[in-house]
Amino acid sequence: MAFKADTSFLRFLTMGAVGVRATIAHLREQGFEAIELERYCASNKIWATKVKRLRLPDILCARTGLRVEVRAKSDLKVRMSDAPNNPERRWDVGLRDDDAVAFVACDGGGEQIRVCGPPVFFLVGDLRTSVNATKLGRPKSAAEGAERDREWRSTVPSQDGEIIEVTKDRVVAQMASGRRQTYQLGDKAAYVRPGDRFLRCASIIAGVVPRLAPLTAAKKKTWDPLPTLTAPDAVDRYAAAKAIPHRGLGAAKARAALLAAMKREADDRVALEIAASAARLGADAGAEHLVSVVSNHSRGDLRMEAVLILTELGTAAAARELKRIATGAELAGNELRQAAAWGLGKAGCRAYPDLVDLLGDQDDAVVLHAIAAFGADTSTEVVASLVAVLRGGDPRTRAAASEALRLVGTGAVLRALVEAARAGDGQRAWVLATLGRLDAATVRTALAGDALLTEVEPMLTLGPTENWLAVAATASDLRFLLQQDVPA
Rounded to two decimals, what is the model's pTM? Predict the structure, then answer.
């Protein structure tokens, strides 16, 4: 039974996001000023509205201009997706020779995806020069022009170890098991020297690509993004716009350059990003452009992108605009409302009082996004508002408030629920039910010796700590199984 088929895409997306985050952290540790270039590449949030993006690498160094594409792999290989018969889907479309590709080994087993070792970097130019040494895998679908895996052969040790000898023909390593391992190079280049340590399934010690990316040299480069705002290539202009707010340039000079570029920009996608950077630097005209795109643009994907940018800005003005979008009757059924609810929460503005107001919305998707958007930093005042909904709201809104409180799950939530349960005013059912859905050990410790624990105990027993069928993955599997109810 393919229990996990409905979650496979999310798992793939999560691995990519984890890989991007790990690569950004690694580059920053190495002295690069790494930022996300392609929006949401470091997130696994799925939106139905697909933004028609430029062909962008995932990461940009705002100081040097280095761009990095990230490939997270559960089976580490130097491998890129390629469609040899489709020029728009070739493995290197939109990449420059001095861009890098980072290959990141991840452990895809279990509930959590984790990175197994530091990224391994290669320059796109070096991948291109060695492309004749690659091999193509089978088509990923039966469609004409389907993508295939293009692989540059490499050596990935299966144990931890240390390099003890490197010659033109071989690499000799001392493995963690105590045995010596010799790797014949053949047409491969060695990427290691004696004394280098490596990690099992996470290090590449040799391959047909002639070298690892020389990041030390790349770190010494400098790049001025302001002149690049007038570059002929749209991706270059986009990258310049993304970098400028991170460069510490004079705010007035940067704002003026961005606003001038925004007015002359012919590509609507690039113009939107220029406006976003201008807004980050306090330019009202930039923020106005974002609002105008949300309200008036004919392209739904750009309207969605503008909402995501408002989420990133996280300002009070952005929160007001997101609240307007989330509650806009003219947008009924539009995913923009869900995105706006999401942006009001922990992903962006943290305007949690506004989320309380959305819990009574009649659009299920909007309410679900509002519930999920509450964070652990939800204030005691907002917690009190949610508890008030538990005690006095309609059944639909009470259910939403209960789930939000469960997800927040802080000590403030526990204290507020205990106080409400002791009020004795007849409005206790949802309060007790919510108490019973908090962490069982925490509730039992807080209520030890209290008669209230007797009322809550049966619900604690049904929680995932003690009831294996309540664990999210198992509950999902069971629901999927129960849907298979058409008799043979």
Answer: 0.91
